[in-house]
């Protein structure tokens, strides 16, 4: 006789809030088997299911609500979770243990508050409508987008993290952006005075206005713009819209009305187990106050959600003990990092500072009074130091003999912190609380694929800031266990770029198809291997990129030998070697620009850029330029771009060598060289360095005795000073060393690896590179010079080659069977030239085009 087993009666668990923390709590409940014990309901005020607020600004860059969603549309129903979206909870009836919505009442056994926070808007007279926008939800962003239509200028009130994100959004909408901050520096919580000053300089260089120590007293109608912000100091600023990002406040209204204990500065009071003063109600995330603190980052909220889910199913878990509030950000394209006690407030704390006023880079290292531990850091301009400093701070790792070396520029004795130096308890991913030990466990369990590791642990799937460190630790642990780390270029080639380069050289392979058939797998290749192999073939044999066998390997820019711009048109950059140009050629550029109505700009590399050409116009424009003696400037390729120069001894009273002449020689020699990444040169006629040679891949500075050679510098996203490589060289020796340096880089660098990153990865550092190039320690000198000479001898202008071949010209068509212009490309006039229509100006298209006719 079978005994009757009554089904287990499930308790009802309600979660109020479907933001990132509320959703993560549901994921943890599902993962830990809680749905066998609880009937889970989740209520969210927004129409959309939970989405990624960390990357909210990407909504203006083309991502939609669906792509930002944190789960599939059927995730909740698949796991038996009842989702009540666009349904706000109006009241918590603690006496009846029910929540009240516009649709009725639902009883609960346990209740979790994950209501998050709301943007604080100061009570400023006149703040309403488009002068009282906020930046928090997708609906908020839709409102900002609507307000930006037809607007010219936008202001963000608040210079913190979210404020700068909002300023970035305004610039992406085509508005002139300004930031107004009450404090005397940007990001006052995370940065010190010097860090704030460096960030301000960088952001202003991007064209964003920064107004510090400003308190808005009222908002009134403007004269030239919709609104005028009057400040307490008597100054004012006019604008068309205002976005408030002056901080957040815990969303604790429901808790207050239900009589739950609320902290003095806001937030539902919780204990170490996230329980409120009602034992049936818990709170997590930004709405919760633990020991008087509210945590405004996603990682602490995730930690709360994990631990609470474990507690609800009776699994072991750690009591909440606070959270590390260190942050690594990219704001308006500027790296910003803050770790621990960034302000050095700890008693006896000592600081080391690195300040670079030229690049507006700043680094501060804060160490304990005994000089043995890192307790804080500030980074502005370069976050490559962040992971190492964070691990020193979190794990109490012993400092090097000279702690300042941890923040010195790369290449000046910086001690690196290898994966083996991290303890198993070291946190690799703070968003999902993944430790080094957890990575090791995955490797021990047989995980050998990085994608599988991310899927199993969710590491690097939150903010993504730990991706590089995760890969480093994972590969180190694989190697330590004798597992060969797969460094295949892609699924089609089980070789690195360096190995493929060697194969192409040794076997004299001259086509992708031959390389794929002999050393790859599959029939077509992919977007990774095609451009990489195309670059290798061009580097080795310098075939025209327009040849039929190479065209299918290229991205859009190389395919059409022009840089595609944001509106689908192309830019044209003829080579102006060394920045020297005759009046006749200058006139031709003006005539061509006027004839085709091209936007004209002088670049930072001493060339002239012509914007706005449609695809079918490119051959005609280049035909006129080539007839006038111009040739391609390779602005579209991973190749030599420019050789910048000052006027040198020819004109300058300080010049000691002919820098223009040397720049012309170098650009003429290396102008056809294809490489793993773009390369830039500069030649200065004296140590005053007007050509900024020490920020280039190859920098040459004149001395009384010849030339000093600098290598492996670059500007861009991660600036790096070039290193002094050799001194007082004559012309022939200088060129010989550059030949060897460049070809050794082309031979050994990884795909899309700048010379700066390549140099940092070389074992033995600068001394090793000098030994190879100067002392010929590998016996490659003559071979490298010969390979370079082959590239030089085979050079031809790719555009001259293309316009002389009718077959090659066939691909330069907007429409295959129609010669009309692309109807989706629109322009407006600004400062006497045409530019692309911004999203906010689409309503102006008919007027603009009528005016242009």
UniProtKB/TrEMBL annotation:
GO terms for molecular function: 2 iron, 2 sulfur cluster binding; 4 iron, 4 sulfur cluster binding; flavin adenine dinucleotide binding; heme binding; metal ion binding; NADP binding; nitrite reductase activity. Keywords: 2Fe-2S, 4Fe-4S, FAD, Flavoprotein, Heme, Iron, Iron-sulfur, Metal-binding, Nitrate assimilation, Oxidoreductase. Its cofactor is [4Fe-4S] cluster; [2Fe-2S] cluster; siroheme; FAD. Siroheme binds at residue 690. Residues 326-390 form the NADH-rubredoxin oxidoreductase C-terminal domain. [4Fe-4S] cluster binds at residues 646, 652, 686, 690. Pfam families: Fer2_BFD (PF04324), NIR_SIR (PF01077), NIR_SIR_ferr (PF03460), Pyr_redox_2 (PF07992), Rubredoxin_C (PF18267). GO terms for biological process: nitrate assimilation. The keyword Membrane does not apply. The keyword Iron-sulfur applies. Residues 428-475 form the BFD-like [2Fe-2S]-binding domain. It comes from the Bacteria. PROSITE patterns: NIR_SIR (PS00365). Residues 637-757 form the Nitrite/sulphite reductase 4Fe-4S domain. Residues 565-627 form the Nitrite/Sulfite reductase ferredoxin-like domain. Binds 1 [4Fe-4S] cluster per subunit. Gene3D superfamilies: 3.30.390.30, BFD-like [2Fe-2S]-binding domain, FAD/NAD(P)-binding domain, Sulfite Reductase Hemoprotein, domain 1. Signal peptide: none annotated. Residues 13-291 form the FAD/NAD(P)-binding domain. InterPro entries: BFD-like_2Fe2S-bd_dom (IPR007419), BFD-like_2Fe2S-bd_dom_sf (IPR041854), FAD/NAD-bd_sf (IPR036188), FAD/NAD-binding_dom (IPR023753), FAD/NAD-linked_Rdtase_dimer_sf (IPR016156), NasD-like (IPR052034), NiRdtase/SiRdtase_haem-b_fer (IPR005117), Nit/Sulf_reduc_fer-like_dom_sf (IPR036136). Pathway: Nitrogen metabolism; nitrate reduction (assimilation). Belongs to the nitrite and sulfite reductase 4Fe-4S domain family. This is Nitrite reductase (NAD(P)H).
């Amino acid at each position: 006789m079978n005994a009757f087993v009554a089904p287990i009666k499930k308790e009802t668990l309600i979660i109020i809030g479907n933001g990132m923390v509320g959703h993560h709590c549901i994921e943890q409940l599902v993962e830990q088997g809680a749905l066998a014990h609880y009937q889970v309901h989740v209520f969210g005020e927004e129409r959309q299911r939970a989405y990624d607020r960390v990357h909210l600004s990407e909504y203006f860059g083309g991502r939609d609500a669906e792509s930002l969603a944190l789960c599939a549309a059927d995730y909740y129903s698949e796991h038996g979770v009842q989702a009540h979206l666009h349904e706000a909870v109006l009241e918590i009836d603690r006496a009846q243990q029910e929540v009240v919505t516009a649709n009725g009442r639902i009883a609960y056994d346990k209740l979790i508050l994950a209501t998050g926070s709301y943007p604080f808007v100061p009570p400023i007279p006149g703040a309403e409508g488009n002068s009282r926008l906020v930046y928090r939800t997708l609906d908020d962003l839709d409102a900002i987008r609507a307000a930006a239509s037809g607007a010219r200028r936008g202001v963000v009130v608040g210079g913190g993290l979210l404020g700068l994100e909002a300023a970035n959004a305004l610039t992406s909408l085509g508005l002139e952006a300004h930031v107004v901050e009450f404090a005397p520096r940007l990001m006052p919580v995370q940065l010190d005075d010097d860090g704030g000053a460096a960030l301000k300089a960088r952001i202003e260089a991007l064209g964003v206005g920064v107004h510090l120590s400003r308190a808005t007293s009222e908002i009134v109608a403007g004269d030239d713009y919709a609104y005028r912000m009057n400040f307490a100091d008597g100054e004012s600023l006019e604008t068309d819209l205002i976005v408030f990002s002056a901080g957040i406040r815990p969303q604790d209204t429901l808790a207050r009305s239900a009589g739950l204990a609320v902290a003095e500065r806001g937030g539902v009071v919780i204990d170490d187990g996230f329980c409120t003063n009602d034992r049936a109600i818990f709170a997590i995330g930004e709405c919760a106050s633990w020991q008087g603190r509210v945590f405004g980052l996603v990682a602490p909220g995730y930690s709360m959600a994990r631990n609470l889910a474990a507690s609800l199913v009776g699994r072991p878990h750690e009591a909440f003990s606070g959270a590390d509030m260190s942050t690594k950000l990219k704001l308006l394209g500027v790296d910003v990092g803050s770790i621990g006690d960034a302000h050095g407030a700890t008693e006896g704390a000592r600081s080391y500072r690195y300040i670079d006023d030229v690049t507006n880079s700043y680094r501060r290292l804060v160490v304990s009074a005994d000089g043995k531990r890192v307790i804080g850091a500030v980074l502005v301009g370069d976050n490559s130091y962040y992971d190492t400093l964070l691990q020193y701070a979190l794990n109490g790792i012993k400092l090097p003999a000279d702690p300042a070396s941890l923040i010195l520029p790369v290449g000046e004795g910086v001690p690196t912190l290898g994966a083996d130096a991290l303890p198993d308890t070291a946190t690799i991913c703070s968003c999902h609380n993944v430790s080094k030990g957890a990575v090791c466990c995955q490797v021990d369990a047989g995980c050998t694929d990085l994608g599988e590791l991310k899927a199993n642990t969710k590491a690097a799937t939150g903010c993504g800031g730990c991706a590089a460190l995760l890969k480093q630790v994972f590969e180190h642990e694989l190697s330590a266990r004798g597992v060969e780390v797969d460094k295949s270029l892609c699924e089609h080639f089980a070789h690195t770029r360096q190995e493929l380069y060697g194969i192409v050289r040794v076997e004299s392979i001259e086509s992708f198809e031959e390389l794929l058939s002999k050393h790859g797998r599959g029939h077509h290749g992919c977007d990774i291997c095609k451009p990489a192999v195309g670059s290798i073939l061009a580097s080795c044999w310098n075939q025209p990129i327009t040849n039929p066998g190479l065209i299918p390997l290229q991205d859009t820019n190389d395919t059409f030998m022009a840089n595609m711009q944001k509106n689908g048109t192309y830019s044209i950059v003829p080579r102006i070697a060394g920045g020297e140009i005759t009046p006749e050629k200058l006139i031709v550029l003006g005539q061509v620009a006027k004839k085709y109505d091209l936007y004209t700009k002088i670049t930072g590399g001493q060339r002239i850029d012509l914007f706005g050409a449609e695809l079918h116009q490119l051959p005609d424009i280049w035909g006129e330029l080539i007839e006038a003696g111009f040739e391609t400037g390779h602005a579209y390729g991973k190749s030599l771009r420019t050789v910048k120069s000052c006027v040198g001894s020819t004109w300058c009273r300080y010049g000691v060598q002919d820098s223009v002449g040397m720049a012309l020689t170098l650009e003429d020699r290396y102008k056809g060289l294809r490489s793993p990444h773009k390369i830039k040169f500069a030649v200065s006629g004296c140590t005053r360095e007007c050509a900024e040679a020490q920020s280039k891949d190859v920098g040459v500075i004149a001395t009384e005795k010849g030339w000093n050679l600098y290598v492996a510098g670059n500007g861009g996203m991660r600036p790096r000073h070039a290193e002094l490589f050799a001194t007082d060289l004559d012309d022939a020796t200088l060129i010989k060393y550059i030949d060897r340096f460049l070809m050794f880089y082309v031979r050994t660098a990884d795909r899309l690896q700048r010379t700066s990153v390549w140099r940092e990865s070389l074992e033995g550092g600068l001394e090793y590179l000098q030994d190879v190039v100067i002392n010929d320690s590998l016996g490659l000198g003559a071979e490298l010079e010969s390979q370079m000479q082959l590239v030089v001898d085979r050079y031809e202008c790719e555009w001259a080659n293309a316009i002389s071949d009718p077959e090659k010209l066939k691909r330069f068509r907007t429409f295959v069977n129609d010669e009309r212009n692309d109807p989706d490309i629109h322009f407006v006039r600004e400062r006497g030239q045409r530019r692309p229509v911004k999203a906010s100006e689409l309503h102006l298209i008919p007027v603009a085009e009528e005016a242009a006719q």
